[in-house]
Structure formats: structure tokens, C-alpha cells
Specification:
Order of helices and strands: HHH
Number of strands: 0
Helix content: over 70%
Strand content: under 5%
Oligomer: single chain
Length: 70
Amino acid sequence: MDFLNTLFFGIYPYIAICIFLVGSLIRYDREQYTWKTGSSQMLSNKNFRIANILFHIGVISILLGHFAGL
């Protein structure tokens, strides 16, 4: 059991971070023009304005709920 604890909480996070960073660098080096945001088109539409407001209200309420729980 001690081995699994060390593996999942001591070694695995560092492996995942290294894979994320190396993969991001490789993707940026090979396909740098595919890094773009598609959300700017969605937010400019008037129909999504209410969704944007509700999303932010939801995120703020979740954060406030976590702070109240602490």
C-alpha cells in the first residue's frame, strides 16, 4: 500500500507535468499556427451574452461556496 501511495502521489504528478510540458513544447514547435482561440467568435454573438453572464455567476458562486466551506 505504501508503494501505491508513493507512486500515485509522489511520482505520477511529476511524470504528468513533464509529459504536459514536453508535449506542449513539441506541439508549439511543429504546429504553432494551430494555437488559436475559437471562443472570441462565440462571445461576440448576442445570443451567448446571457450564457456568458450565467457562467460567471456560476463560477463565482462555486468559489464563494468553497470559501464558506473552509
